[in-house]
Amino acid sequence: MTSDQYQHLLHDLAHVAGMTDPSGLVEHGRVKVGELDTVLEHEPAYDADLLQVRMRLGTLPSEGQDLSRAILEANYVSGYGGECVFSLYPASDDVIITMRVRLQESMTAQELWQGISDVARHGGQMWQGIVAVAQTAAGSTPSDAYAAPGLRA
Fold first, then answer.
1. How many C-beta atoms lie closer than 10 Å to residue 145's C-beta?
2. What pTM, to 2 d.p., does this model score?
């Protein structure tokens, strides 16, 4: 996808997302998806057809050892075949989910928005389940976070 095509897609995406001012998305790749702060990163010099979408899920609590294990398990169990990964932002304890999207000339803003929204919803549910189990279930293992309905990919 060329830079011009990508810019056009972002303008359309801003419209689909209901943004009154698309400048944050067009200039910096920033958009709110549900409750999640999201950044779209497109580096055409690296790969013109690759879009990385990073969503901030929350902050790793101080009792993060079990949560760190659960996040790594989530990468293995529900990583969408390697297309999505959980990680920690290096400068903070922010938990991030990153998804890779292959851009195609025929991709519509609605298709991109739907894919991003689905991952935001599912990733957010997984994160909430991980945190809830780690904080409330004494003696539970991180993998118990996947016992709740709808938390498996």
1. 26
2. 0.78
